[in-house]
Amino acid sequence: MADFTLREMMTVVASREIHDGDIVFCGTGISMLAAMAAKHISAPESIIFFETGAIDAQLEEVPMAVSDSRVMLGAAMHGSLSEAFAFMQNPNTGSKVVGILGAAQCDLYGNLNSTVIGDYANPDIRFPGSGGACDVSSFVRRTIVFMQLEKRRFVPRLDYMTSPGWLKGYTSRTAAGLSQGGPSVVITDKAVFRFDEITRKMYLDGCFPDVSRQEVLDNMGFKVDVTREKPVAPPHACELEILRSRCDPQRLILGPS
Amino acid sequence: MADFTLREMMTVVASREIHDGDIVFCGTGISMLAAMAAKHISAPESIIFFETGAIDAQLEEVPMAVSDSRVMLGAAMHGSLSEAFAFMQNPNTGSKVVGILGAAQCDLYGNLNSTVIGDYANPDIRFPGSGGACDVSSFVRRTIVFMQLEKRRFVPRLDYMTSPGWLKGYTSRTAAGLSQGGPSVVITDKAVFRFDEITRKMYLDGCFPDVSRQEVLDNMGFKVDVTREKPVAPPHACELEILRSRCDPQRLILGPS
Amino acid sequence: MSLDHAISRFVHDGCHLSIGGFTVNRNPMAAVYEIIRQKKRGIHLYAHSNGQGVDELIGGGCVDRLEIAYAGNGRFAPTCVRFRKAVESGELVVEDYSNFQMSLRFTAGAMGLPFLPVKSGIESDIANQWGFKPAARRSDEKIPDLKLCIIDNPFGRWADTTRLVLVPAIEPDVSIIHAQTADSSGTVRIDGLAFTDIEQAKAARHVIVTCETIVDTRQLRKQPERNQLPFFCVDAVVHLPMGAYPTACYGHYDYDPGYLNDYRNYAQNDEHHRNYLDRYIFKTKDHAAFISLQPLHRLNKIKADPDTGYATGLNRL
Amino acid sequence: MSLDHAISRFVHDGCHLSIGGFTVNRNPMAAVYEIIRQKKRGIHLYAHSNGQGVDELIGGGCVDRLEIAYAGNGRFAPTCVRFRKAVESGELVVEDYSNFQMSLRFTAGAMGLPFLPVKSGIESDIANQWGFKPAARRSDEKIPDLKLCIIDNPFGRWADTTRLVLVPAIEPDVSIIHAQTADSSGTVRIDGLAFTDIEQAKAARHVIVTCETIVDTRQLRKQPERNQLPFFCVDAVVHLPMGAYPTACYGHYDYDPGYLNDYRNYAQNDEHHRNYLDRYIFKTKDHAAFISLQPLHRLNKIKADPDTGYATGLNRL
Fold first, then answer.
1. Is the ipTM of this complex over 0.95?
2. Which of B109, C149, C307, D241 is 20 to 30 A from residue D180's alpha carbon, by CA?
3. In CATH, what is the architecture of D3-114+171-285?
């Protein structure tokens, strides 16, 4: 088995969730790298899409932000922010979009907080806020969530719900008037979680190599079903090679090797 | 006095209503020519604006329609239709816009019909419809109306109100939720009418040279105040010269001389 | 994809169709003629101020219902002739909106919204007179139950507004536009004014783009700012030189005053119009054959001057 | 017009201000620094995802209230540092929206509408948690009475939608954007992504445009498709090379990783940040003086490659 960092593992696992024809909504950081990895490795016909309006950006170098001039080069078109979000709100195109989101907190139903810890008017910790996350999570066919697996992040109750996931489970999401899409997978640095088709509760899909089930559960603030656990395949050498040499040779996002 | 046609007279009279800084919304035909005449004669700093999105079009040749490629040449920018109308709905820019409209019927308050004669569902005569006329008349600071003076056109009651003028007079327009603007002048082939500041009823502002007051009144289906009548100055030779040689040398809109 | 294939695949009897362009400019005329040639029937048509294309489709007997803001064609037909005849004879049901309203209705469809607000339409008979009656609307799930509705501003007097008109989204089954340039995957570049073509395309379930030139993808991507529609919105790209003729295509050719004047004269007489359809459309196998019927000296005269984008000095009487 | 004149004329204490750009790109930084230099106070600021400009204005003590979707600056500051400090200490009142909502709020202002509808925000705390409380809203006529409101679709289930969020228009007193190119009358051309700059400008009562290059009007008018803002929307045009520095300006220069990393470090310590303000802003008389303080080798490294529009191979660690 090749040596790899947890960040590399997370990126590769996420890239496997992306298929040809998917339009991939990318945020800053690891989500962008996962989309680049998918395009270079397994889904060359996927389309990288930024809320800033750059469509099918060619990405010769990894962007540091979704507004980086590197997203502009060789794009199919440059739209405005409103146009970009409208592509997701429009069901004809939105149904092809896969969103990748990170957050500070996540609950059992994949609802996300990227705004504050503590009281909104008087927060203990302030984060950047929704950006496009609330929009993406409200509109698109499915979302991939990136999280560090920590008890303070996997919480029974969010301090603030920035981005709606499956709300309270079952059909509560569509009953509220949101799109049929929702979170499909949560990828952490220790394990992968998915959501039950009926209850929409998160369950443990698999632990990373050398991570025990107990270690995963100890780092969560709520209980999940573990009966469907299966091993998560580590990155192939060729996946790592492309990720390191083609996607982020400066390790701007991958960080120290 | 120079020889001139009634169409030339109407065009020149309308061009005098346009001032530097005005953004002139033009439709097809004589309204476009009036705006071109104003820009060439008395208001070089006026801006010709088409609903098709061409802003400050240079108009080397007279366009045959607002979508004519001739409106595109040398414009400050090309917007979409929605952008063009939004400039008029936006009070910051809309308050600078003067609209020029024609119609099949006009009533005492400058409300206009450009849709049907007879019943809407089963019309005797069908016209092209609003186009941008309802929008312009709803949004902009003032409108200039072009009409042939005929009894069947100056009617006590419209068959269909396409474009709101002063509605029922007094403050009825603003009470309904429309902009403070409204029709300021009606220019016909025989006379010019304006609207009372308080009642918003049309009154006779002046007859064209060699047209009697009685001839005007005989061609109207409703009574108007005539106490404010004053002569309408005929076109100057230089106005005619510019109109004929610079604006419409092919007489596409001016018609036979 | 060939045009006849694209039309037979996406344009069906009774479908809801939207066509781009504005009066005398950049109508997707080749597609319009092919729809007539294929004798499509019962179409529900949407346009804002499309002139020639709408009138030909109506004259071709393809259209039962029309939602439109303006059916004129500049100086060539202050009111479109076959449109007027069809409305006055009761063959065509029309629902009127304003140009801004129609553009916003396409924009709403493009944005995935059920409606957009607008401040025009208040007190106009556009609000009061409905082309499709309430019972007919309720029985047809492809038409909204309301033509429009007027609401009080929920934000008080915010933005100095007391009342607004909400106009419902249009989601055509298929939109057809004609562009100067596309690549084979469907990324589209329109030069000059784009009118509401882009919103019409984004609002539709299927999109056919005809274009003067197909270029390499890399060429379009050197200036992404100039492209308006990404490939994933487009179902069929058809290379069709002169595809907007007899309307204009900025930078390529002007409208043909001779054709448009002749057309008006044919359209005014039912028999002449039948002969026109027969000769120019039914008896031509495709757009190239239709173009080959046009006198060469007329086609030469409308070639665009590269400096102005139109045929400078063209006799347009 | 000179920048100091434009700022002193249009940006007043307590005014409602909107700035363009997005995180590390095309922020109107020269204008931001001039606002700080002129010690404007009590500003009500609007942005969607403007990173560096917002954080500097907050750090400069100019801002009391902020409506925003995202206050991060890419890898340089996942959460903007002075923003975070000001919120956590209670010095700054924030009202959160999503990026689409903010863009639509500017679009509503640009369109002269009191609101636009959107399908995001339902069930989110964006709808439930208001930064400005109802009583404060009602007592301030420049803030809408409602942060937003949720309505049932008046067109039944049209467009497969049952509920919508209405977000109120923003009408800033002044918007400031930085463009690559303008003419002296104010027609604006932005290359690369325009973000929401155009809507922000159209929504405002007054508009200041700073630009890298002023060109002849005739040059801009050869390609009207590439211009986004007509001159009659613009109150002041200021020629300001490097006017977006230390953020990027596509085709001209990249963001400066050195500056942005240094800034983050200064910002994290109140005393260092005071020294930073003093040295770089208060003690420089204008943007040219500010630029002259930057090491030349750093400025040289961020020059854009004409083929890519950014500084190819730049070390961005």
1. yes
2. C307
3. 3-Layer(aba) Sandwich (3.40)
